[in-house]
Amino acid sequence: VSPLVSQRVPQVVSSLVPPASAGPRRAFAAFAVIAAVVVGPSLVAPAVFDACASAQPSTVAVVVDFGAVGGSPDVVDVRCVAPAGSPRNNGAQALVDAGFRPRYDPGSGLLCAINGVPASGCGERTAEGRYRYWSYWRKSADQATEWRYAAIGPAQARVQGGDVEGWRFVEAAAGPQDPQPRRIPDQAALCGPPPSAVPLPPPPAPTPVTPTDAAPLVPRPGDPAAPEGSTLSSIPPGAPTDPPSGAGEEVQVDDGAEVAGKMTERAGGQLGNSGGVRGPDDTVEALAGDVGGDRDGGEGGSAFPWGVGIVTGLIVGLGVAAAVRFRQAPAGP
Amino acid sequence: MSRRGLHPLAWWGWAVAMGAAAVRTTNPLLLALILAVVAYVVAARRSDAPWARSFAVFFKFGLFVIAVRVLLEMLFGRRLPGTTLFEIPSVELPAWAAGVSIGGPVTLDQLVSALTQGLRLAVLLAVFGAANSLASPSRMLRSLPAVLYEAGVVVTVALSFAPQLVVSMRRTREARRLRGRSTRGVASVRGIAVPVLEGALDRSIALAASMDGRGYGRKADLQPGTRRMAASATAAGLLAVCGGVYGVLDATAPAGFGLPLLGIGSFALAVGLVARGRRTPRTRYRPDRWGWPEWSAVVSGVAAAVGVAITARVYPEALAQPVHPLGWPALPAVAVLGILAGLLPAFAAPRPRSEAVPLPVPAMEGSAP
Fold it and tell me: Is A306 near chain B, with CB under 8 Å?
């Protein structure tokens, strides 16, 4: 909801509090006002939004922190996408539109992996009773600049321009005290100013990424997808869990050339959705080494396995035999 | 020497084990294989008794369950991104109801997920129907272990309700047909459902009452304190066994509570049995024998359950249909072989003799008692 409406709501609600005696009529009136307050914003919001559209950031920042848990690549991947239209404006769609490839548990719908990290398993419980899982964090456009541990899943979490969506692979107790994604959830700083405000630089060259202490992290030169908006930025060794102030290192690593890349427009996001953008994933997988390199590609569009055909034939044969025997008289003496 | 079909406890043991295999997986290949195996065994070894139609009834009920599951998924399902097939109109709910979604894009992943989960429930229902159509409920009641006498009425109603339902459904439909009314369509369901449910429950309770009147589960010659102790131990034991079975069968149950609870429950049941003592010895007229066909049936069912359990331990991903992202179901060889072993009773079990006798219940409808 826009700031205009959200400012008005507290006043109305505070005037609702009955002084001493509240009769049924008063209760009804209170109910009517509450209903108006609750339903109203969804009716009013579009008009108000149009009025101050210039001030409203248009993109959602998606921060995916691969952590450094069990061999996961120690990188933070920040991408910006325009939120999808009304029925699809949820966190899960934003994650896909940003070019990430999540894997969900078929039964519970829990997010198990992003870009093949981890290669298998889903929210595994370690021997110490902690969980190795993808924690989900959010920062709404109208909230203070701090991460909030999400109370609902990405498929339900509604997203609008200016929001920041955060994911971090952790091994922790699975609660709000878990380590947060290692970026300040400031959409403006993460995504940079709108493209109109910044002169577009010449075709972006592959940005050299500062290597961490372990492996040389060099993206493939001439990667066709590099301009599509990979802002792979490494974390300096020994970076604190909570970034000290601002997004200084972000600006330092991703200089002006990255701004255009960051502003991945809706079209780019859709491309990523349909599998056109491979670069960011490849880069992350190159960084990840053998973690999840072999599994995630083969699941989707693999060739028809012959064993499945044989067993299907067996099932059909048994079913036909059973149907034939059902037609006959029941077994007698 | 002629036999009167397989021991009913053996059929139930086989069916429970096949159900335990089905409940652990959403892999459509394994589920369809379980369904085919169970259907073939029923087709090969059903009798002409009225309750032998249970399998068909529960199979159709399973199809209905799948349809409902898919419909609910389309209306209120998870809205994870995927291959969108079509969109149904969505309702924009206010922010405080963000956890609920009504309508929206329907994806292929969603439909496959709903179909496989519905199929799992349908296969469980079919397995239950198979047990009801293969095992004679009256012989089953006769051969129950003495521990369950404490819960005599409950057990009687629980075991005979489903077969009575099938019998009752058939009679009600025939009655409607004789009166020249339709037995198809939605309108007929209303006219059939109530008398069927009511009739089945009435018959089960009448059976329990008549068995009670003949001394089933009677606790003679016991001190009141001992009797109370035995009854509470049996009740606690049954509860603990139920919880333990849930812990063993359900993959999402907290680890390490199923087996201990099962042990505690069995111990409590044993205490109840000992407390009752052997004061009231029971004789059985022409007891059902337990021979190698019975063992083979139970072992073949357990092979299916163990095959799936081994797969769950070694290769858990193979038991789930992959959605988000979609993929072909895996084919775990151990589970497939185990489930195929469940076919054994179709050949090893003796053919049932004609059981075309009504259930031992006084006729309820029409005639004066």
Answer: no
Q: Does A275 touch chain B (CB under 8 A)?
A: no
Chain A residues whose CB is inside 8 A of the B117 CB are 107
Residues of A (139-198) whose Cβ lies below 8 Å from B: 152-158
What's A291's DSSP letter?
T
Sequence-distant (6+) residues with CB within 8 A of B213 are none
- Give the C-alpha separation, B267 to B326, whole Å: 46
pLDDT tens digits, residue range A80-96? 998 888 778 888 999 99
Residues in contact with A140: Cβ distance below 8 Å, sequence separation at least 6, in sequence order: A148, A160, A162, A163
A158 DSSP 8-state letter: B
Q: Which residues of B touch A108 (CB under 8 A)?
A: 252
Report the alpha-carbon distance of residue A28 to residue A30 in Å, rounded.
5
Please indicate whether, in this complex, the C-beta atoms of B80 and A109 are within 8 angstroms of each other: yes
User: In this structure, what token pair is assigned to residue A146?
Assistant: 């701090």
Dihedral, CA atoms, B114, B115, B118, B122, nearest 10 degrees?
180
Put simply, the answer to whether A308 touches B331 (Cβ < 8 Å) is yes
Query: How many Cβ atoms sit within 10 Å of the Cβ of residue B369?
Result: 5
> Most A CBs within 10 Å: which of B328, B344, B354, as the mutation test of the A interface?
B328
The rounded Cα B113 to chain-centroid distance in angstroms is 23
Q: How far is the first Cα of chain A from the last one, in angstroms, to the nearest whole number?
A: 76
- pLDDT tops 80 at residue B361: no
Quote the CA–CA distance of B144 and B4 in Å, as a whole number: 17
Q: pTM for this one?
A: 0.70
Please choose, from the candidates A316, A309, A323, A191, the residue with its C-alpha nearest in 3D space to the C-alpha of residue A260: A191
Q: What is the DSSP string of B3-22?
A: --SS-HHHHHHHHHHHHHHH
Cis, peptide link before residue A118, omega less than 30° from 0: yes
Secondary structure E strands in A190-330: 232-234
Minimum-distance CB partner of A331 among B35, B46, B323: B46
Q: Sorting pLDDT into bands at 50, 70 and 90, what band is A63?
A: very high
Higher pLDDT, A239 or B7: B7
Indicate yes or no: CB of A158 within 8 angstroms of CB of B95. yes
Distance CA A142, CA A48 (A): 15
- Model confidence at A249: pLDDT above 70: no
CA separation for the pair B75, B114 (Å, rounded):
12
- Taking the Cβ of residue A85 and every Cβ of chain B, the question of whether any pair is shorter than 8 Å is answered with no
Chain A residue with Cα closest to B32 = A315
Compare CB distances from B79 to A106, A155, A299 and report the shortest one's residue.
A155
β-bridge pairing A164-172 and A60-65: parallel
Name every chain B residue with its beta carbon within 8 A of the beta carbon of A92: 79-81
